[in-house]
Amino acid sequence: MQTAAEVLVAFLAAQGVDRAFCVPGESYVAVLDALHAHPSIDLVTCRHESGAGFMALVDARLTGVPGVALVSRGPGACNAAIAIHTAQQDSVPVLLIVGQVEARDLRARAFQEIDYSRMFDGVAKFVGEATHADQVPELLARAWSAMLTGIPGPAVLALPEDVL
Question: Is this prediction's pTM over 0.85?
């Protein structure tokens, strides 16, 4: 049986994603492992989350395939936020995947926890957060559809580390 992280990576590959940008973080290490095991997606390690976000934006512009950036919770997502705002302003589909605190700690003011639906409201076309692994495929499909329907734009998925 596949983990949610493996489902995520398989979904991205099926959509034609061949590159993703990240600053590696412990909150989504399961996705990093799944990407390592999936040879068709090149993972570009960046020095700063803002750079990862902007690289995903430029990659989307150059290839026509939505860009993908992966960041850690809290400061990582905040650092990537300006790239998401730019993607919204420029109508570029970018998927920001944020490693989130464990599901049991959501909305309990856990270390570096942010409510991403509130943070990215008005900037992203879709913001989703899984609390169970079986929600990941639907949230991915909804995010992908939102990015490409009508005027293109960014989507954000917060995925708790214990869900992945």
Answer: yes
- Spacing of C-alpha 136 from chain mean position: 12
CA atoms within 13 A on the CB side of 50: 5
What crossing angle do the helices spanning 29-36 and 4-14 adopt, rounded to 10°? 50
Q: If pLDDT is split at 50, 70 and 90, which confidence band does 100 have?
A: confident
Cα distances (Å, whole numbers) of residue 94 to 46, 109, 132:
16, 28, 23
In the chain, count H helices and then E strands: 6, 6
Token pair listed for 33: 């492992």
Residue-wise pLDDT for 16-57, tens only, equals 999 999 999 878 788 999 999 988 999 999 999 999 999 999
Place of tokens 């943070």: 119
CA gap 42, 59 in Å, rounded: 12
